[in-house]
Amino acid sequence: MGSGTIASASVQGSGPVFRIREFVRKNGVGYLFMLPFLLLFAVFTVVPVGTAFGLSFSYFNMLEAPSFVGLDNFKLLVMDDDIFALALRNTLLFSVVIGPVGFSASFLFAWVINSLRFRNLYALAFYTPSITSGIAMSVVWLYFFSNDRYGLINDVLISLGFLTEPVLWTLDARTILPVVIFISAWMSMGTGFLVFLAGLQNIPKELLEAARIDGVRSGFQELWHIILPLMKPQLLFNAISTIVASFAVFDIAVSVAGIPSPNYAAHTIVAHLYDYAFIRFQMGYASAIAVVLFLMTFILGRISMRLFAERD
After folding, report:
1. ∠ at Cα 274 (256, 40), nearest 5°?
2. Model-level pTM greater than 0.70?
3. Cα–chain-centroid distance for residue 114?
4. Cβ atoms of residues 184 and 129 within 8 Å
C-alpha cells in the first residue's frame, strides 16, 4: 500500500495539472503585471495585423461585406500595378539611402559628440528636430527648396551666378525624390543618435583604459575592438528602427510633393496604401499592400537580428 501510494503521488505530481499549477505559482505574478500590456498589444497590434491578413484575400469597399477573391489582390499588385512597382522602387531607394546613411551618420555624430566638452548641449541641439512632426519640418524645409526666386537655395545660387532661373525643386520629377530623401535622412538621425550616445556613455572607462594598456593605440582600433562589440544592443535597436522608418516614409513625401506627386516621382508604398485605403476605399487591395510591406520589414528585421544580436 505504501509503495502504491508513493507511486500514485509521483504520477500526480508529474501530470499536466501539477505542471500548470507550478507554472502559475512561479510565474503568475509576473504575467499578471504583464496583462495590461498584453491586452493592449493584442487589441491594437495582433488583431489589426490579423484583420489585414484576412482582408488581403478579399474585395472590401467598406460599403458591402467582404467577399473572398483568393490571391487576386496579390496577382494584381505584382503583375499589373505599375504604380506599385514605381512606389516599390522609390521606397527601396529611400531605404538604401536613408538606412545606411542615417544609421552611419547617427553613430558617427554620437561618437564625435561623446568626446566633446559640452556634449549635452550638442546632443540637445542635434536631437530636437527629431521630436518635431514631419509636416512641421517639411514646412521649414520648403522655405529652403521653394520653387520661386525667393526660395533660399534658389536665391543663393542665382546670386552667386550658378543659376539663371529658379529650380522647381518640388515640381520637377527629377528633383522631387532627392529633396524628400535629403529631408528624411536629416530627420531620421535624431533618435538613433540619442540611442548611440547613451550606449557610448555606458561603456566602462576601465575597459578602455585596459585596452590602451594592452596595446590599443588609435581611436579606430578602440572603436573596432571595444566600442562596437559592446554596443550590439544599440546597433540592433537602431537597425530595426531605421528599417521601419525608411519603409514607412509618408508624411514628409506627401507634405513636400503632394499625393500623388508629379509623375509619381516621390510615391512610396505607404502613400500607395493610403491612396487605395482612404481615397479609393479599396480596403482589400490596401490590405494586400500592407501585407507585402509587413513581410518586407519583417524579413529585413530578421536579417538585422542575425547581424547584430548577441551570441552566447
Report:
1. 115
2. yes
3. 25
4. no
Give CA–CA dist 69/56, Å, rounded: 9
Nearest residue to 137 (alpha-carbon basis) of 95, 97, 189:
189
For residue 68, report the phi and psi dihedrals to the nearest 5 degrees.
-70, 130
Angstrom distance (rounded) from CA 234 to CA 244: 15
Q: C-alpha grid cell for residue 227?
A: 566600442
Task: Give the chain's domains with CATH numbers.
Answer: 2-55 (no CATH), 71-308 (1.10.3720.10)
Q: Which pLDDT tens digit goes with each residue over 220-230?
A: 777 777 888 88
pLDDT of residue 9: 46
Per the DSSP assignment, residues forming a β-bridge with 68 are 58
Q: Which three cell numbers stand for residue 258?
A: 503632394
Q: Quick one: CA dihedral 64, 67, 71, 75, positive or negative?
A: negative
Collapsing DSSP to helix, strand or coil, 41 comes out as helix
Task: Please give the Cα distance from 288 to 267 (Å, whole number).
Answer: 17
Number of other residues whose CB lies within 10 A of the CB of residue 217 = 9
Residue whose C-alpha is closest to residue 102's, from 79, 129, 77: 129
